[in-house]
Design goal:
Elements (H helix, E strand, L loop, with lengths): L1 H25 L2 H4 L1 H6 L20 H5 L14 H20 L3 H23 L4 H18 L2 H21 L6 H40 L11 H27 L2
C-alpha cells in the first residue's frame, strides 16, 4: 500500500510537468520558444504571475492556495489537479498490472506522452510532431528488450499502410498526426498487438462519434480529435493486450 502511495505521488509530479507541457503546446509557447516553455516556472493563467515553489507541489499546492492565485485571487482551473490525479493513477495502474522495473518506467513515460498528445489534440485538433518523435524514441528500449525487430517493423508497416489507405478512401477522416502516432505505436507494439490497438481505438472512437453526432443533431460532419482514442488504445494494449489476445484465441479464433 505504501509503495502505491509513492507511485501515485511520483505520478502526480510527472503529471504536473506533462499537463503543463500540453498547455504550452496548446497555447503556442512551445513553438515560439521551446527552451523557455520547457524550463520556465508555471504562471497563473489569469494574471501571468509566476507561481511560487510551495504552490507548485502537485495537489498539495492547489489545496493550500484553496484553488486561487495568491497574487490576483482568481481561481485556478480544477483541471490542473484533476490531470495530476490522472497521471498519478496511471502510475499506480502500471505498477499494479505491469510491475515496477525499468521497462515499466518506460511504459509509464510512453503512456504519459500518449495522454499528453491526446490533451493537445483535444485543445488544438493537432498532434505535435515532436511529441510523436518522443513517443518513438521512448519505444526503442522496449523494442530492443523484446529483441523482435521484425515484429515491430510489421506492426509499423501494418498500421501505416492501413491508415494511408483509409486516408486515401476517406479524405479528412484522419490527420497526418494520427497516422504518425499509429505508425510509432505499431513499431512499439508489433503486429499482433497493433491489431488490438486498432480494434480498441476504432471501436471506442466510433461509439463516441455516434453519441457525439446524436447530441449534435446527427451532424456526422463534425470532426472530433482522435488521438484520445489512440492513446486509450495504446495504454489498454500495453497493459492488457496479452489477455485480450488470449481471449481471442480461446473463444473466437478456435471457431
Amino acid at each position: 500500500m505504501i509503495s502505491y502511495i509513492f507511485y501515485f505521488a511520483a505520478g502526480t509530479i510527472a503529471g504536473s510537468f506533462f499537463y503543463t507541457l500540453a498547455e504550452r503546446y496548446s497555447n503556442g509557447k512551445m513553438k515560439e520558444n521551446p527552451l523557455n516553455a520547457l524550463f520556465s516556472r508555471s504562471e497563473c493563467p489569469a494574471c501571468g504571475k509566476s507561481i511560487s515553489a510551495l504552490y507548485l507541489i502537485p495537489l498539495v499546492g492547489f489545496f493550500i492556495s484553496r484553488g486561487k492565485c495568491t497574487a490576483c485571487g482568481n481561481r485556478i482551473p480544477f483541471i490542473y489537479p484533476a490531470m495530476e490525479i490522472l497521471y498519478g493513477l496511471l502510475a499506480v495502474i502500471i505498477a499494479r498490472f505491469h510491475g515496477t522495473d525499468l521497462l515499466s518506467f518506460f511504459i509509464y513515460l510512453i503512456a504519459a506522452v500518449s495522454v499528453t498528445i491526446a490533451i493537445v489534440d483535444v485543445k488544438t485538433m493537432m498532434v505535435p510532431l515532436s511529441l510523436n518523435i518522443i513517443f518513438f524514441v521512448l519505444s526503442i528500449y522496449p523494442v530492443i528488450l523484446h529483441n523482435n525487430f521484425m515484429d515491430s517493423f510489421y506492426g509499423f508497416l501494418f498500421l501505416t499502410v492501413f491508415f494511408l489507405i483509409i486516408m486515401f478512401i476517406f479524405p479528412g477522416a484522419f490527420g497526418g498526426g494520427d497516422l504518425k502516432l499509429y505508425a510509432a505505436a505499431g513499431f512499439l507494439l508489433g503486429l499482433e498487438m497493433s491489431i488490438v490497438l486498432l480494434e480498441v481505438s476504432l471501436v471506442s472512437g466510433a461509439v463516441f462519434g455516434v453519441i457525439w453526432g446524436a447530441l449534435k443533431g446527427w451532424s456526422f460532419r463534425i470532426k472530433i480529435p482522435f488521438a484520445p482514442f489512440i492513446a486509450a488504445g495504446i495504454i489498454i494494449t500495453l497493459l492488457f493486450g496479452d489477455t485480450i489476445i488470449l481471449f481471442y484465441y480461446r473463444n473466437i479464433y478456435r471457431f
